[in-house]
Design brief:
The protein is of the alpha+beta class. The protein has one domain: Peptide Deformylase. It has helices spanning 30-45, 128-141, 152-166; strands at residues 50-52, 62-65, 73-83, 87-94, 97-107, 109-115, 121-127. The longest helix is centred in the first third of the chain and has 16 residues, at 30-45. The chain is globular and about 45 Å long. The model has no long low-confidence stretch (mean pLDDT 91).
Length: 167
């Protein structure tokens, strides 16, 4: 298995991978399964609850989750089918932005369709923390970060903190 590393901070001009839309996976094969295994290992090692392929430099529509109280899940070529009108506020962080946290408003529940690493399609209704993790990782596939979902004043403070940490 190849060694997988996190990409640089998304506002680093040297690495814009996290700001690009990921491409659909054409074939769920051993290479994709290897990517999933590496992502899972990295997520566990760094005590995360989710990880998207763009976070490890792969612009593919793949993410993995392991939210508290839930099983390990793989989402390949996911599509959001529905989100609830009811919203929830929760403090989010990201493995690609260590030490950065902010309260983010998201739909409380979601319905998503995807394929697993065995090439089997599934539909999942999720709420609570699992819904939040799925939405956070899905955003990565769209080139969106949780810091994009806070007001401009808070985002400016977070970006300043990121810049300071890089010095």
């Amino acid at each position: 298995m190849n060694v997988i590393h996190f990409t640089s901070c998304p506002d680093d001009p040297g690495d814009q991978t996290l700001r690009q839309k990921a491409a659909s996976v054409k074939d769920i094969n051993d290479r994709v399964r290897e990517l999933v295994a590496g992502m899972r290992a990295l997520m566990v090692k760094d005590k995360g609850v989710g990880l998207a392929a763009p976070q490890v430099g792969m612009l593919q529509r793949v993410f993995v989750t392991h939210a508290d109280g839930d099983e390990f899940r793989v989402f390949i070529n996911p599509s959001v089918l529905w989100t609830s009108q009811e919203q929830a506020v929760y403090e989010e962080g990201c493995l690609s932005l260590p030490g950065i946290w902010a309260e983010v408003v998201r739909p409380r529940a979601i319905k998503i369709q995807a394929w697993n690493e065995k090439g089997r399609a599934f539909t999942l209704d999720a709420s609570g923390i699992l819904a939040r993790v799925i939405q956070h990782e899905y955003d990565h596939l769209q080139g969106v970060l949780f810091i994009d979902r806070v007001d401009q004043a808070r985002r400016d403070k977070l970006l300043a903190k990121i810049a300071k940490a890089k010095k």
